[in-house]
Request: fold
Amino acid sequence: MHFKGEFHNSIDAKGRVSIPAAFREMLFSVYEGEVLKVAKNVAGPGLRAYPLKVWARIEETFQTLSPGSQRESMMRSLISPAIDCTFDSQGRIQLSQSLRVYAALEKDVVIVGMHDKIEIWSQGRHAERSAQDAAELKQSLQNAYEIGF
Reply:
């Protein structure tokens, strides 16, 4: 089982966003956890939320990188700003102000299941990213055909 689906939701004035029940259930049953690690999305101006087991693999891989400026940049930009988010009684997580600003999260958000992670986008940035994805797929349909689409 993996995170799948696209859900439109809203973020409240305190920076809390509700994670879909299906995602929470999978987090508890498959990943045996109740915490998401939320980080900047390297693929675009949104956020990614990882089960702690998945995040642990990312950090292990990060530790194998050679020392240098690129490793330091990754630490400063991607690893260090990530936060642990626990669920409140209504299934919401609290996002930090800095992550909300980075992702331009104001009111309307889109939450997307991406196999072993969850993406959180502002509605406008998600529409832009979806248009970019569609253009890329249109240029190279071979991979889509190979998997049966």
Observations:
- The helical segments are 21-29, 52-63, 69-79, 97-103, 123-139, 142-146.
- The longest helix spans residues 123-139.
- The chain has a mean pLDDT of 92.
